Amino acid sequence: MTDTRSGQRAPYIGRPMPRLEDARLITGKGRYTDDFSYPNEVHAAFVRSPHPHARIVRIDAAPARALPGVLAVYTAEDYAAAGGRGIKHFALPADAHDVKKSSFHDWSGPPAFEMPQPVLAADRARYVGEPVAMVVAETAALARDAAERVAVQYETLPAVVDVRGAIAPGAPVLHDATPGNVALDKECGDPAALEAAFAAAHLVIEHSFRSQRIVNAQMEPRAAIGLFDEASGEVTALACSQGAVRLKTNVADSLGVAPENVRAITPDVGGGFGLRNNPQAESILVAFAARALKRPVKWLGDRSECFLSDFQGRDLVTQARLALDRDGRILAMSVDHVGGLGAYPVSYVWLSNAYRVMPTVYDVPLAHLRVRGVLTNTVPTAPFRGAGRPEAHFVLERLLDVAARRLGIERAELRRRNLIRRKQLPYRSATGLTYDSGDFRGNMARVLALAGWKEFGARRRAAKKRGRLAGIGLSNYVESPVGIPVEYVRVTVQPDGVVEAVAGTQSTGQGHETTFAQVLADQLGVTPEQIKLITGDTAMVPKGGGTHSDRSMRLAGTLLVRTSEKIVAQARAVFAALVGVKAEDVAFDDGYFHAPQSNRRLDIFDIARAIESDALAPDLKKPLTSDETFVGRMPAYPTGCAIAEVEVDPGTGEVTLTRYASVDDAGQAINPMILHGQVHGGIVQGAGQALMETTAHDTAGHVLSGSFMDYALPRADMVPNLSVALAEDPTSGNPLRVKGGGEAGITPALAVITNAIVDALSVYGIEHIDMPATPANVWAVIRAAEKTR
User: Fold this and answer.
1) Other C-beta atoms within 10 Å of 350: how many?
2) CA distances (Å), 125 to each of 76, 365, 754, in order?
3) φ, ψ (nearest 5 deg) of residue 236
4) pTM of the predicted protein model
5) Which of 82, 582, 640, 751 supports an S-S bond with 397, CB 3.0-4.6 Å?
6) Inter-residue contact 757 to 777 (CB < 8 Å)
7) What tens digit of pLDDT does each residue of 21-56 get?
């Protein structure tokens, strides 16, 4: 594309071009883990605990081993005898062991509990679905049949699946090292100053909130393949994860193998959302079995199995207080988070995030925070899209709505009075985040106009005539993405007209093949179609952090710019030598190198081919390649505002999401169309939690929500047309001015949809409803309110 006004090519950055990878993916040419198969391949199946808590008395594998075609049955004893170890998840944030940088360095409290997660339960099973044994057989069907023949004698133990119950006196203890089941207990803030502020307040709002546990329901169920090469001794693990390097590290550590003897491959991945960052037992065990049997071992989890065994998200109970003066200005807040970790501490990151972003975009002068991570007899939790930030915004935005109604101040006006002003930037929050940019008031003003906030009254009256209750909700937000602080990029310009880019991050559906290519195309003067992106294979990717926390374009994009600058400088020197001018006289624009003293114009591929010329000095005859590593933090603060409208059927409790608008500042949009898609996806995931998704257990702790028959996900017909717009308040944190958009849609969604529902129900005097707002829950709240009127 050429800019007709200047005659120069228009930049690819900022262009809403279709995704390059889509033609491959939608025509069945994608390669996911289950698409790989190998000669002499065998199959694995797992024996899983049917109990939430039980002592393993005895495992009798003889009936399974006796079946023809069964190659092995492995227990925790077999795994340990071969030198196998548990999975080290490093549950604390990546920099938490550095006192100067730690997210918890200024907090009081005992050290957090960390332990390797067993890949097979040894003495006790601590959640339904925990692997107890692995069967390997010639076919997948035979492996499953044999797994059913493994006889496990259990002695059931009392279980606890609710975080509040887990910290109650006398609750069953999961690990001897954590009496009271509290694995993390930290707090910060000045209690005396806080209480003084509350004592002086005109209004104090206090409320308990629940962000329920939800499952990870990607399009692609989890799968893993293990390979072993006898000649080299190399173990290969192939799995649908969010980062090959992390998978390699965990496999090497768990099997006691030198990292250089492990290769990890993560091909196309059908969804990540954070819960596939941490490797799970199956990925380790198929590699273990492949080494033991010297044959490829494959496991494909079915959907019901994944409901029991995949890491899950959320599970947070919060007790919060908010103090305000008579004009509605916030004076102080107090928050007590109690988060469910499941049976093993896989990650505290989402709890760290929940406290760090707690004041969100508002000028909160004082805060006291307590964070507890609690062990329960459930599958472990890990960071799920937004990772603590949607939960934090849900708490504060709900409190603001309650405060507005009690003070008689219009809800948008109350927020406007408390939003951080542009003149206050850079602004350091009460929890230590320093916002460098963000037009918080401007974003809210734009979305109020986009959503027709002032015209809502007419829509409410129209709904009432149809026998329905209409409600509208508002939520501001700010993100604080960080992620693993290591990234790697290598870029090579090849003479055949291809630019090869190797990156340590990878896509789980975000469109990296397109957006990375758009960045490189502008930097090197080529087209996106000439870029070949290589990710997800540690044979070519030596390091990197994978995809999560809006980090890929911030970190890898920065390295794409840096490597390109080095390549252009190298190419400029080659061009100068070819035409006999000084390197500083060589210009590079519109895709060509040129100089005033010469009529020659060469593109980057011409330079790559010219390097092979004998006319060049030896020091210039080097491939056009450069690699860069980034280690550290690159903060960014995506922000925005969302408005949702709902209609409620008061007779049935059914909630319909009728309108949704958002303005999102994700920094410079590399590809607005892809960014809009990211926002859309996040909104729908948030709507799922707000309206219908939740795990469920019976009184004994057994899982009741083990399939899509018992667990609801939003469908296309439940979602209205989404009105989304982009903003950009410049950040200087990286050369591309990127903030991140992968979690923009979901961060305000829980709050804004619930605010709209409560607004609709306010005619009954209702101030709050817990998620999910299912028809049954809404109906019950309405009926209870009617009885008290």
Assistant:
1) 25
2) 11, 46, 37
3) -120, 130
4) 0.95
5) 751
6) no
7) 999 999 999 999 999 999 999 999 999 999 999 999
